[in-house]
Prior knowledge:
- 28% of the residues lie in helices and 28% in strands.
- It is an alpha/beta fold.
- The protein has one domain: 3-Layer(aba) Sandwich (Rossmann fold), CATH 3.40.50.150.
- A 7-stranded mixed β-sheet has the order 3-2-1-4-5-7-6, with helices on both faces.
- Helix 3 (83-91) links the parallel strand 4 and strand 5.
- It is globular and about 50 Å long.
- The mean pLDDT is 89.
Amino acid sequence: MDVRSILDIGCGNGNLAKRLSEKGYVVMGCDPEESAIRIAENNAKNVVFKVLGVYDDPLELGSHPFDTVVACEVIEHLFLPRALPTFAHKVLKRSGYFIITTPHYGSYSKNLISSFLNKWDDHFTTLWDGGHVKFWSLNTLQAILDEAGFDIVSHYTVNRISRLLRFIWPNNIVIIAQKK
């Protein structure tokens, strides 16, 4: 994968964009929250940031298509989630890569344990204002990415605590997709 330019959608405080920039990539970050962009600009001086969300016109990023678009923990917050892969598709170069992560809600064992322990309210964070509004499995993510013009290159689940636990209690899905 030859990657030089990266767009970090939903960049928040700019931490990921900063780390990618420090690795030598040309990075731009965008987020619809102006307060987040102010923090990001102070956090990562070598990165260009824009107040822009996936419901906005991607032309506001400029005319340079990106090799890779990254969206970490974004899609689950969108009322109109199709906007994310559509936006990514528009700003990517031909055969560019879209890397997306989201909490994993498709694990049978995780869901069974949550039911047994009566932890669904905690699991779905129902009292979190502005929290997750959509819940994703690998199947639903594959469907929305295919619809937007992407092929899945690879996917996996991760557990932030332990590699061993990812089979029993996967926290996140990571998908690498390529623009058709």
